[in-house]
Amino acid sequence: MNGSESAFMPRSKTRMAGDSTVGSVRSVVAIAGPSSSLTIPGIVVSQIVRVMARTNSVIRINVDDRSDFDSELFRAPSLAAALHDDVELNVVTFEAPRRSWARNEAFEWWMSSHVETAVAFVWPGIDSTWVRQFVAAAKKVGATSTVVCASAPRANSLSFAHIADFIKDADQVLVGRESDAQALRKELGSRAPSITTHQALQFSRSVPQPAVHRIMAFLPKDNMVALATLLAAFDAIPEAWVDSYHLEVLMRFTGEDAPQLVAASYHSECVKLNGDDISSEKLGRLVAGSSALIIADPVVDSRAFSTAVDCGLPVVVVASANLPGVGSGYVGALLADLDRPVSVYVAVTHALRLSDLQFPRPEEWQALVNVIGG
Questions:
Q1: pLDDT surpassing 90 at residue 118
Q2: Cβ neighbours of residue 47 under 8 Å, at least 6 residues apart?
């Protein structure tokens, strides 16, 4: 066997969740799906695992695409992934083999009689042929199987028709949009399991993004270092593209240093500096009309960050030292380094690539887990 096919032993040294020492009753949840913290699907699975692990022993099975799943995706680190907690003590992780026959054997090996709930996460466009094997392994031990499927912007009825055959034997299927649920019911007919919707899986925006990327940046008062870093990152945008960008910087300032720094920037005609106090109502309108937000060193009660979360927007959190006190559970936040303009540029570029996604609020993961059970 090669490396990926010898993954029948846990990567961590944590006691196996399915080991007889855990107890004789069913108490384990097996969760399978993408794993990379450089991708939204992988980060979503991690959030489901973390919430589930607060009250259950969890077997996490990483099932990644046959292609290089990290390529041409997101090089900016996820803030949610960086904010670790201690629930991973209840998690044992396995890597699923890539060859179908080996993967099938692995699923059956890991699916012990202690598994009560088996959860498969599907993102349309990523290989999901493995779900059939996973569900079959769950049925062999009498575990309840749930397929959790994201309703992504580029997914359509054909996308869900394609995966219908892989999920037809599950006990329940959760999707984000009712139109996707209807597509599955139509395709499966009398074979359809229980198919319902959940807000946490609705990743599609109801309003299309405008042609011009509107970026709102929130900086601490008179923080010229943060302003200089931000402007250097924005100036890295190629001239051929910059007409499609507009940056509005909200920073209270004294004197003329800040306006002069903006005026001296290369793309100054696409930058607006706003030093006014912003009411909560106006803040809500500004954020809702944005493609992405940049927030430097947000405080725990940051109005800008909480408003962005309410709107489900991608956020670039620019940190100067320690990790910020916000962002736990929010999969739409990326992390950048205040001392490295290139880090900010990369994060903003990727945030704009995510601007057609609607990100769930952190509390919606718990609501989703409640529906899944376990």
A1: yes
A2: 80, 329, 331, 362, 365
